[in-house]
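Weekend entry, working from home. Most of the wet-lab plans are on hold until the incubator is repaired, so I used the time to fold the two sequences that have been sitting in the queue since the last round of cloning. Logging both here for the record. First:
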Amino acid sequence: MPRFYRFDGSTGMDLRPAAVLEADAARIDELRRRRDSMAVATRIRMVDQPPEGLLPLSLFDRTPLPDRTALHPRTMETVAPDIAGLYVDYMTRIAMGASKRVAFRIPLLGARLVGQGEYAESLLSRMVDFAFPSARAACLLLDFDNTSRSGGWVSSTPAGTRCGC
């Protein structure tokens, strides 16, 4: 009669059947996927949705909302997309209760790395609310974010020229 081996961890070889090994590998991959961080779009693609949707459209009422303000043409945009994204990120931190100095510590560090600490401090002092002058000062300060993250390397674009607001 043939002898069957079970994995006990001591042999260094796993002699379990291939189907068991594949199921175990799939379980480990699923656990790793749940534990490790991933992009939201990646996670959404992993979730199966029924063809008719999770909720039937008949449950919803259509409510048109008047849009009194038309969108500006893209050519009129004055703030670079990366600065606009950083602005939302940093100002959200302030709105959630962080102090300006704590929220903007990375751009402040970048400004100090290139000898613009006083200028950055003056920009920080101009940020008093979420109005346009404060937004402009924040965008100008955010030009130093990349400088800080690159370790003080100064790009060919001087600080304050990408804001445009």
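Second, folded right after the first finished:
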Amino acid sequence: MHSLDYKSFYDKVGHINGWDFSTINCVYDGVQPDLYDEVKKICKKSDLWLDIGTGGGEAVLSIAESSLLLVGIDQSTGMIKTANNNLVKSELPNVRFLKMEADHLDFPAHFFNVVSCRHSEFFAQEIARVLIKGGTFLTQQVSENDKLNIKEAFGRGQAWGEQPGKLKRQYLSELSKAGFSDIQSFEFHVDEYYQSPEDLIFVLKHTPIIPDFGQTEADFQILQQFINENQTEKGIRTNSERFMIIAKL
């Protein structure tokens, strides 16, 4: 997908579902990373926290009370609409959701104590500008070989054909150039077992793993063959590959 395709995709999904995958039944064989567990450990009650690519706000609202103020931003109008609807239901007073591009953060310099970004694009120079000295940036990203057997079956997919580790190396270099000095990175490789075809179809329809999934009948024929070949006692097998970076300014 090109950048405009991604924006259109996330806007559509944002209106329909936000970024809520809580209904998916999936068993993990290994340690599944959770960026917001790490954010919760770092955030103080007096901190100002910015979350980039916040989606429908589902994850951050659950730990918003860890900070004095949480500001969640997303480029998608649909996602922000869903996030604000979720905020109204939560009745939390210390949260704001704003439509904003990650490459132009409309905040004063040295404003936030903590900045986070999960599975979304970020720009290291902008983050360094809005973080206080000694502030912390945390990100969790999808690695190139995530859902590799699915992408092999379809012959296309997110980061298909990219060299493994390319995105992590790029972000580590950009953070270093932006002035971050204490930079740690971690990789996570987990086997996933989806409990039903419906669970897997929901993920494929609501993420960009396979661009334009379901637009043709051939996609469902490929998926059926994939399920037949990867069905196990634990479920339909694929893989999850993520990396996490924690950097101090």
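Plan for Monday: verify the second prediction. The CA atoms of residues 39 and 104 lie 23 Å apart.
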